[in-house]
């Protein structure tokens, strides 16, 4: 960690919240809330999404506090507020803890305690189970730890309905199964960082060829989960079409990575790997946006006949 002293600014504390990660959390949580069969008062709905976002930010701050030692080693994280010396570890810890209490308490008061309980468990899972245990102890860190990023739509759904249902479980499952191929495609071209920091990512412990095989396997397993949502009460033909097209694209990309040798990947600076990583982001965003479209069409009574609901 740098010895240079800085006066922390608002932007430095905001960066502790991992705003890029938080934006995806906020979006999926908002979708989970908006597609639920129970409508909420707009002010309460906005408050629920806001407090879920604060909870996600709290998780990010606690993660940065714990990971400060390896963040200063990894090139892509050296500029974060703690390793760069702009925020002290103690301030990050205090901020993360206070935001956690505020987010969970206010979500419980403005929505319900089922949603608040799920948010509390999400924060605990990311900060303690993933950051403090899984991340540095097993190459399955991303597989199991992916649950932390998969909970937000379930929390949003619970904020609206007060419970959990097959729809929210499938939204959770979609993100949970999407997480390994998403992060492993990143690890293929960021392997040096993880190796230098001693993080046992799959690429470090089992090698890149094995990781490419696992990306293909998990992408295959992801496809039926993605398609299953189409045949629930929140699915429909728009979502189904998006799911088919995107799943074919993701499978094609994963198959391409599986066939690539490391020599070829190195020669073009991991162009295909970077492409699959970017496509995976588009994949998740588009699928959840399609769920929003389906909800809007139902709200306007613009449906095309009877769509089968099998799940």
Automatic annotation (TrEMBL):
<feature type="transmembrane region" description="Helical">
    <location>
        <begin position="238"/>
        <end position="258"/>
    </location>
</feature>
<dbReference type="Pfam" id="PF01040">
    <property type="entry name" value="UbiA"/>
</dbReference>
<keyword id="KW-0812">Transmembrane</keyword>
<keyword id="KW-0808">Transferase</keyword>
<feature type="transmembrane region" description="Helical">
    <location>
        <begin position="279"/>
        <end position="300"/>
    </location>
</feature>
<keyword id="KW-0350">Heme biosynthesis</keyword>
<feature type="transmembrane region" description="Helical">
    <location>
        <begin position="113"/>
        <end position="133"/>
    </location>
</feature>
<dbReference type="InterPro" id="IPR000537">
    <property type="entry name" value="UbiA_prenyltransferase"/>
</dbReference>
<protein>
    <recommendedName>
        <fullName>Protoheme IX farnesyltransferase</fullName>
        <ecNumber>2.5.1.141</ecNumber>
    </recommendedName>
</protein>
<keyword id="KW-1003">Cell membrane</keyword>
<feature type="transmembrane region" description="Helical">
    <location>
        <begin position="44"/>
        <end position="66"/>
    </location>
</feature>
<dbReference type="InterPro" id="IPR006369">
    <property type="entry name" value="Protohaem_IX_farnesylTrfase"/>
</dbReference>
<comment type="subunit">
    <text>Interacts with CtaA.</text>
</comment>
<feature type="transmembrane region" description="Helical">
    <location>
        <begin position="21"/>
        <end position="38"/>
    </location>
</feature>
<comment type="similarity">
    <text>Belongs to the UbiA prenyltransferase family. Protoheme IX farnesyltransferase subfamily.</text>
</comment>
<comment type="pathway">
    <text>Porphyrin-containing compound metabolism; heme O biosynthesis; heme O from protoheme: step 1/1.</text>
</comment>
<dbReference type="InterPro" id="IPR044878">
    <property type="entry name" value="UbiA_sf"/>
</dbReference>
<comment type="function">
    <text>Converts heme B (protoheme IX) to heme O by substitution of the vinyl group on carbon 2 of heme B porphyrin ring with a hydroxyethyl farnesyl side group.</text>
</comment>
<dbReference type="InterPro" id="IPR030470">
    <property type="entry name" value="UbiA_prenylTrfase_CS"/>
</dbReference>
<keyword id="KW-0472">Membrane</keyword>
<feature type="transmembrane region" description="Helical">
    <location>
        <begin position="87"/>
        <end position="107"/>
    </location>
</feature>
<feature type="transmembrane region" description="Helical">
    <location>
        <begin position="215"/>
        <end position="232"/>
    </location>
</feature>
<keyword id="KW-1133">Transmembrane helix</keyword>
């Amino acid at each position: 960690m740098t010895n240079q002293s800085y006066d922390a600014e608002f932007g430095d504390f905001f960066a502790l919240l991992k705003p890029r990660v938080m934006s995806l959390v906020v979006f999926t949580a908002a979708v989970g809330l908006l597609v639920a069969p129970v409508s909420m008062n707009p002010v309460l709905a906005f408050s629920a999404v806001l407090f879920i976002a604060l909870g996600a930010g709290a998780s990010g701050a606690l993660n940065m506090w714990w990971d400060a030692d390896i963040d200063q080693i990894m090139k892509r994280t050296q500029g974060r507020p703690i390793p760069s010396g702009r925020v002290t570890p103690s301030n990050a810890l205090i901020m993360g803890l206070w935001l956690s209490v505020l987010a969970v308490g206010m979500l419980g008061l403005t929505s319900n305690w089922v949603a608040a309980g799920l948010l509390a468990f999400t924060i605990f899972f990311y900060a303690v189970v993933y950051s403090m245990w899984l991340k540095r102890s097993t190459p399955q860190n991303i597989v199991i730890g992916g649950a932390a990023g998969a909970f937000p739509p379930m929390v949003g759904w619970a904020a609206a309905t007060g419970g959990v249902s097959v729809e929210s479980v499938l939204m959770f499952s979609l993100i949970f199964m999407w997480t390994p191929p998403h992060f492993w495609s990143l690890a293929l071209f960021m392997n040096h960082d993880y190796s230098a920091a001693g993080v046992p990512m799959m690429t470090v412990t089992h090698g890149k060829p094995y990781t490419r095989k696992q990306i293909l396997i998990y992408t295959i397993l992801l496809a039926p989960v993605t398609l299953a949502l189409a045949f629930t009460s929140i699915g429909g033909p728009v979502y189904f079409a998006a799911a088919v097209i995107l799943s074919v694209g993701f499978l094609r990309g994963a198959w391409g990575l599986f066939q690539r040798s490391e020599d070829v990947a190195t020669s073009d600076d991991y162009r295909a790997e970077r492409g699959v990583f970017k496509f995976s982001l588009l994949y998740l965003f588009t699928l959840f946006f399609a769920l929003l479209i389906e909800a809007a069409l139902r709200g306007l009574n613009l449906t095309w006949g009877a769509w089968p609901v099998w799940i």
